[in-house]
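writing this on my phone so excuse typos. first protein, seq and then structure
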Amino acid sequence: MTFLDKLFRRREKQRTDKLQILAQRLDAFLRPSLSLVDSRTLTIPEKRDRYALFIYGAITSLAEREELDETQALAVLVRFLRSSSRLNDHEVSRLVSICASSSDTEENRPAVSAGAQAMGDWLRGETRTAVSALSQLLSF
């Protein structure tokens, strides 16, 4: 094995480790909030979109801290949506597309910002913020 092979394998392992850490933090952050979300709520497309945008905001907040790029953040979103919901691949793809273009859409920015802010608060020990932010975002 050459020096470059070792170097690239080490970098790939570091990236994988960071993604795993991010997924674990995301799960710990969202678990209290998800217990309050009625599964019927997520059958409403507008609320499901807001939910995904909120989660994406939380992921981007963590990704910045872990120095991950947008592609890696979106990969965590895909993984989370597939593992934590009963959404089919088409719906997961649609939600990821909405999140990927969220910075281009004025109406989506508040949900992403709310997720990022709630994650920042949570990381500082303010655990109730995520629950209240998600509840407020999904009520309309």
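second protein below, same order as before
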Amino acid sequence: MNVIIDGFLVWWLRKGRYGWSRLRRRLLEHRYLRTDLPPANSLQEIEECLKQVKWATDGPLHLFDCISYPQVTWAKKKDDCDGFSVLAAELLNRWNTDCKPVLVTALVRPVRMSHTVCVFTSPQGVSCYFDNHKLRHPNIIKYEDVVKEISHDSKKLVCWDARDPFTFEMLEFHKL
């Protein structure tokens, strides 16, 4: 049974999740694109914006997992780690395009402990990431090291990826 679950998780992270997110965005979330996002002119202001969002698990219409538009997260003021990460990425990009945000997702067992964060380079050249609303400054160079940090409490790391938060283009994918 574990082989089947792991196989599904690998397929989901490599292909299914992003196709489903694109489809769901197109069908159900396009009306939110007119939502104004808050101005943020520093990392501290971005963190303060993220603190206004409440963490919530994906609802039944998300059918397992979905990466919503950042405007949806801001309008509803609630989402899971995916929503926090895309909102952080959008606010970072609007503030300073040199931050180059990336979504890093670790799929683990138990699945409920899987997690996504927004990794970026600060204007000072330090690698950081937003873990939901918390700004972390570990100065980690590799995405793999971020994955180790965010999955350390899980029983098994199944796979992980790094994606462009705006196009969902795969930058790295690793099956373990």
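Residues 2-175 form a domain with the C8orf32 fold fold (CATH 3.10.620). thats all i got for now
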